[in-house]
Amino acid sequence: xxxxxxxVRVPAKVNLHLTVGDTRADGYHExxxxxxxxxxxxxxxxxxxxxxxxxVRGDGADSVPTDSGNLAxxxxxALAERGGRDPEEPGVQLSIHKGIPVAGGMAGGSADAAGAxxxxxxxxxxxxxxxxxxxxxxxxxxxxxxxxxGGTALGTGRGxxxxxxxxxxxxxxxxxxxxxxxxxxGVYGELDRLREGTHSQRASGAEPLLEALTSGDPRELAFxxxxxxxxxxxxxxPHLRRTLRAGVDAGxxxxxxxxxxxxxxxxxxxxxxxxxxxxxxxxxxxCRTVRVARGPVPGARIVGDDHAD
Length: 309
Ligand code: ATP
Known about the structure:
GO terms for molecular function: 4-(cytidine 5'-diphospho)-2-C-methyl-D-erythritol kinase activity; ATP binding. Pathway: Isoprenoid biosynthesis; isopentenyl diphosphate biosynthesis via DXP pathway; isopentenyl diphosphate from 1-deoxy-D-xylulose 5-phosphate: step 3/6. There is one protein chain. Helix content is about 35%, strand content about 30%. By secondary structure, the chain is α+β, with helices and mostly antiparallel strands. It folds into two domains: about 5-165, Ribosomal Protein S5, domain 2 (2-Layer Sandwich); about 170-295, GHMP kinase, C-terminal domain (Alpha-Beta Plaits). Strands 1, 2, 3, 4, 5, 6, 8 and 12 form an eight-stranded mixed sheet that branches. Helix 1 (about 70-85) packs parallel to helix 2, helix 1 packs across helix 3 (about 130-140) and helix 5 crosses helix 8. The longest helix is centred in the middle third of the chain and has 16 residues, at about 110-125. The radius of gyration is 19 Å and the shape is globular. The two termini are about 15 Å apart. Bound molecules: adenosine-5'-triphosphate (ATP).
């Protein structure tokens, strides 16, 4: 018996490596990226309701739409269409608890879409398999499939074609949240502007990083973290340079802008070091707040369902 309501926990992502290629005919950039799912999570609860609605609580909830603009609601519609259901008969109440920074480059909206897909597949007893859910996820957004899948994965295309990467070790991160978000298309636009007429440096291939992941040594991994969007995020938010420096000064092995930013992620040697770095960074006055996280963690999971694959 599926319990109702159903709560799904969904992870944030950090891009350990992100290469942004040329703009494609459809306007998207060709990407090659290595994602890692982190223990910074949103929780999405789905329950039947007479009238559909969305409520959002937690960090940054005020700037999350509670109408059809919410990516999780788009997931409800897409799943209903694929499953031959009317999303209003009966309705669905979506309750989102944000732990992932909003517009922070950690794919929080995508995580909520993945949570809604996963939760409603169970609530409506659609019994769609992983591949079918991944297929719907890819239509919803580049980062939605990874939020479903979790772990560590290589993403190509817009980021939606995923190949899991074996990463047996747990890595320890400190996450520095900025006072407000960055608009992802604006960051890509800034990258295009910076690249215009120049042969600006692009991150090299991800192969050495993939090898470092098999060794499990965070020092090796730290040396190979790379993000083509970092220069653009720093250009739009020059104070991020100070944040990145402060994390390394506090003892992190390396710091990187997460995806399109402005959140910064710092890789630490172990869990104790992460706690130390977090304490020092939060006193340095270079960010709004800090969190400690570990990765990789699984993708979308029903809370209380410890036997899910
Ligand atoms: P990206 O995946 O593009 O890197 P991000 O992680 O930087 O995105 P999100 O937190 O996904 O940013 O939010 C981007 C914008 O999407 C927000 O400004 C918000 O208005 C809108 N949005 C829609 N649905 C959600 C949701 N469920 N949670 C957060 N933001 C949402």
